[in-house]
Amino acid sequence: MIAFLTKRLMHALLVMFVISVIAFAIQGNLGDPIQQMVGQSVPESERAALRDQLGLNDPFHVQYLRFAGNALQGDFGYSYFYREPALEVIARHLPATLELVFGASLLIVLLSVPIGVFSAIKPHALLSRFFMGVSIVGISVPVFLTAIILIQIFSIGISVTLFPGSTAWGAWLNAALSTQGHMPSFGRGYELVHVMGHWDTNLASFDGLKHLVLPSIALASIMLPLFIRLIRAEMMEVLQSEYVKFARAKGIAPRRIHFLHALKNTMLPVITVGGVQIGTMVAYTILTETVFQWPGLGLMFLDAINRADIPLIVAYLMIVGVIFVVTNTLVDLIYGLVNPTVKLTGKPA
Amino acid sequence: MSTNTSSPAATPAVGRWQRLRDSYLAYSFKRDWGAQLCLAILLGLISMALLAPWLAPTDPYDLAQIDILDSELPPFWVDGSDARYTLGTDAQGRDLWSIILYGTRVSLLIGFGAVLLQALLGVVFGLMAGYLGGRVDAFLMRLADIQLSFSTLMVAIVVGAVVKATLGGAFYSDYAVLMLILIIGLAEWPQYARTVRASVLGEKRKEYVDAAKTMGLGSRRIMFRHVLPNTLTPIFVISTVQVANAIISEAALSFLGLGMPETHPSLGSLIKAGFDYLQSGSWWITLIPGAVLVVLVLSINLLGDWLRDVMNPRLYKG
Amino acid sequence: MALLEVRDLDVRFALRHGEVRALRNVNFTLDRGERLGIVGESGAGKSVAAFSLLNLIARPGFIAGGSIRFDGQELTGLGERGLRKIRGNRISMIFQDPMMTLNPVLSIGEQMVECLKAHRRISRREARAIALHKLQQVQIPSPDTRLDQYPHELSGGMRQRVIIAIALLLDPDIIIADEPTTALDVTIQAEIMALLRELCEKHNVGLVLITHDLGVVSQVTQRMLVMYAGRVIEAGPTREIINDPQHPYTQGLMNALPQMATPGSHLNQIRGSMPSLANLPSGCAFHPRCDFIDRADGSPRPACTERIPAFVDSGNCRVACHMVAEMLAREATPIKEKVQ
């Protein structure tokens, strides 16, 4: 376990190093900090002095080390737009994104396991085929389009006039297919409950939860089918294995075979893929937050790009990098706890 | 199959084998109406896109043909539609049908272009990693790991954002097609590299590689002439899914404003442009291009699923 | 009455292009404490026979007919719930490859305790005590630490010992062992086989041993069946069949053993290979490979290509072969004439 952890830690440090170099390169090449600080009217000699004073003429590695040192102390510079420390801006936007990710993850975990397991145990059942059909459609609809469709249906509402409204059945069908559309689709709402620091939560009020519903569904809409398909495929493979047959030969009840013997083995690759998908999830938060104007990190990042707010972009990349590395290490840790073979070899068998 | 009976003695062993597999493919295809439907839809969309200049009633890139007074007209089945515009018009008064044809063209161009680049990079790196092994392998695969752990869309967004900020918005828009092909191509090569590497490692153990070595063939020749042909099946299968992914990535980038400009829109930028008018009731500007995008991606994905079932290659998991 | 009585067992696989009959009219019995060997090449249907006893054949396989009576109870059509009470409890199984049989993510103790708890109302502690006792019986070194170990920490031989211990957990009446030593190192094979035999003898447990190894059968079992292409072709006391095989196929198997070959010459292999179950040769399924098929004039015996041979008694054995039947008839006829 120690060997395993050191290995993962080394990997994490390497990833953080790569990210910081990229972030530093972006900072060095994008925009001129002097320009941002003093404006056009200052003479060239004064600029040069300032450049020297700020260490912008130092060799690359010296500048990088200074950057990395500052970053380690949480100093990512000042946001051009917000006129406050970049880290402060990020801290203010972080809770909204985390709550969104929490909502989506809840949906994914609560739905993907039962649906995936069911459609693996009964692959020919009508319901399984239905789930598989829906999931391939789900994978094919981009997140932002899902979000737009959700807004149209549940927020704006649709009125169907496809069937003849003069007949009773037509009117009934029209009414049944039409939606009212009252779900909020913009921002987090105003009934946020303050928890601590920068953290105001959507989770503690009815209105807050209502605001969270559509964005969470949209964010979950691609991962959920992906996980359902993955769990199903892995589970079906595991159900063919000798040890599942042996468990049946021992007279073990099907429920225990499915949910202990098979599921525990199924979850190993699922956990690994889940770790990889965390990155995708972050990318999707940018899309989801853009559609719903959800004031989280993703929307902040996109705004920062459009405003060329370099320190904020750099800070976002570094923080996202930290989140990646931490969650990936956590996922590896969970994997190690579930998979007993990790202990010996330091490498999943 | 009838094709197999023609002069079997003249065809070399590899050709015959390939032909046999092709015929199995053809055989399964004939039995599967779902796959036929998907291919028909896909080919229909591709030919529509290719023939856009002839099929489209108006040229959406020609500002002279656009009248702002015609903006936000609904499609034909909704009250208040205009007979000139079958699918209605967008906020600038462009004919939606025409601009969807041209948009599909852009989306497909970027999708296929990016996958071509991915495949090229991935195959070369994958072959190198799998065949040379050692440090080259360790370096390339670690790079692939890191890039994949960020997810390809995230990499594409960051690269797109940085490139746009460096080169300036106007320049970026002018060369958007090229930029998107480069960005999506660079972001997704690890998928190919890992798949190719996995099958190279499988093939490497087989005897014909040893045989080629003992005959004194150089490693580059062995890689391209002997190992590569045997990795084609998995490459082919993941390519379908990769095209679908590339089209979605392009749409996502365009939706974020990091892709095609509205003057030269892809399906993604059409959706983005229309989204602003969703609340005012003009749902068609965003949802009709959206439907086209979904049908396009879905038919490719379903074909990919079918191919995977039929060819059953050893794919890299995860 | 025998403890286990299999009558006319018929197992089929419903494949896309029609049904394949994996077992046809398989008959045998097993008495309490008796050890029976089932022998044949791979593809003969031995494993299908073993797995169908507890209805563990995977889809698309199914039992199409016949009866399996165990201790007076009919097992075919008993249903999963009823079978579950017998599986692992009164009839247990040992699988071929110990590396694949144990669940990699559950500890040895867990996999033993769950089996006990599935069949008996006992506490975890009691179950662990029984598991420990069984591990001692299969002579695993330091059994108490094994309980908390995972399969990957044990060698193949150790794992097969654990599996034998699991098979013995509930003191079953019968153990079905499907090629229990094939996947092991040659040096360990004999050890494990001797252990299995010793334990069955000591606890009076019946054994159905599936194997392709005639040596193992002769060492361990009292009676044996020889299977070919889904049918039993010879059955009887092991010693008699080994010493004097009647069926040409059994003779071929015996001749193919390395120790039967004269040094320096080729091994006496049976020519050809096992036919596919999907299209069996007409008549006796073995006739295309049979050395005795040709009469003096070189043409095949008509009966062999036309009719499936019925069983005839030859001493204590039963053989399904036209040639043997003819020979027996020839021997018997003069006696009858004398009586008349």
UniProtKB/TrEMBL annotation, chain A:
Protein name: ABC transporter permease
Family per record: Belongs to the binding-protein-dependent transport system permease family.
Localization: Cell membrane
Residue ranges crossing the lipid bilayer per the database entry: 12-30, 100-118, 130-163, 212-231, 266-287, 313-338
Principal location class: membrane
InterPro entries: BPD_transp_1_N, MetI-like, MetI-like_sf
One Pfam entry name: BPD_transp_1_N
Signal peptide interval: none
Membrane topology type: Multi-pass membrane protein
Organism: Billgrantia campisalis
Keywords attached to this entry: Cell membrane, Membrane, Transmembrane, Transmembrane helix, Transport
Stretches assigned to the ABC transmembrane type-1 domain: 94-335
UniProtKB/TrEMBL annotation, chain B:
Spans through the membrane: 37-56, 106-131, 143-163, 169-187, 227-248, 283-304
Localization, UniProt: Cell membrane
Membrane topology type: Multi-pass membrane protein
Coiled-coil ranges per UniProt: none
A Pfam family it matches: BPD_transp_1
Main localization category: membrane
Keyword Transmembrane: yes
Superkingdom to which the source organism belongs: Bacteria
Keyword set, alphabetical order: Cell membrane, Membrane, Transmembrane, Transmembrane helix, Transport
Domain ABC transmembrane type-1: 104-304
Alphabetized CDD domains for the sequence: TM_PBP2
InterPro entries reported for this sequence: BP-dependent_transpt_permease, MetI-like, MetI-like_sf, OppC_N
SUPFAM superfamilies: MetI-like
Similarity comment text for this entry: Belongs to the binding-protein-dependent transport system permease family.
Protein name: ABC transporter permease
UniProtKB/TrEMBL annotation, chain C:
Catalytic activity of the protein: a dipeptide(out) + ATP + H2O = a dipeptide(in) + ADP + phosphate + H(+)
UniProt keywords, alphabetically: ATP-binding, Cell membrane, Membrane, Nucleotide-binding, Transport
Pfam families, A to Z: ABC_tran, oligo_HPY
GO molecular function ontology, one term from the record: ATP binding
Localization, UniProt: Cell inner membrane
Span of domain ABC transporter: 6-254
Top-level EC class as recorded in UniProt: translocase
PROSITE patterns: ABC_TRANSPORTER_1, ABC_TRANSPORTER_2
ATP-binding as UniProt keyword: yes
EC number: 7.4.2.9
Mode of membrane association: Peripheral membrane protein
Statement: the UniProt record of this protein carries the keyword Transport: yes
InterPro entries in the cross-refs: AAA+_ATPase (IPR003593), ABC_Ni/Peptide_Import (IPR050388), ABC_transporter-like_ATP-bd (IPR003439), ABC_transporter-like_CS (IPR017871), Oligopep_ABC_C (IPR013563), P-loop_NTPase (IPR027417)
Family label: Belongs to the ABC transporter superfamily.
PANTHER family: DIPEPTIDE TRANSPORT ATP-BINDING PROTEIN DPPD, OLIGOPEPTIDE TRANSPORT ATP-BINDING PROTEIN APPD
NCBIfam families membership: oligo_HPY
Protein name (Swiss-Prot/TrEMBL): ABC-type dipeptide transporter
The organism of origin for this protein: Billgrantia campisalis
